[in-house]
Amino acid sequence: MKRKPLSQRSRGVAAVELAITLVPMLMVALGVTEYGRAIYTYNTLDKAVRDAARHLTTVVPTNPNPKGDARNLVLYGNVEGTGPLLAAGLDASMVVIDDAASDPAGHTISTGTGTINLVTVRIVGYQHNSVVTYVAPATLDFGAISVTMRSHL
Known about the structure:
This protein has helices at residues 6-9, 13-57, 66-76; strands spanning 95-99, 108-111, 114-123, 127-129, 139-141, 145-151.
């Protein structure tokens, strides 16, 4: 009996190998994408908290609502509070602003030349919701994102 040539006997092997390796490769690609989204969201919120704290350190004394403006910076990325939220699921109740007026013991430092006032802006309790739940956890709990700066007021 005549055997078929090797090229004809191995026909379709590449398709089978591709089918076997495609699923794990696709899962890894989706996982990397999902965790990349989470890191992007965390960095966006971190920058927003930093901008809000910086805004509170340089606020004009005639501004009637500096904490409201800072809260809008965290939520929307602008002091007007317009446009979409910076991160899905972010809520105003998650934004905590402490300063020397609201917490004098924790936000003032006495030095030999006077007192330094501090301001802290935090996001507490934010959960990143995963789009691809079979690759990454359905929710990723971010720890408190916090920035403390010296207030010049």
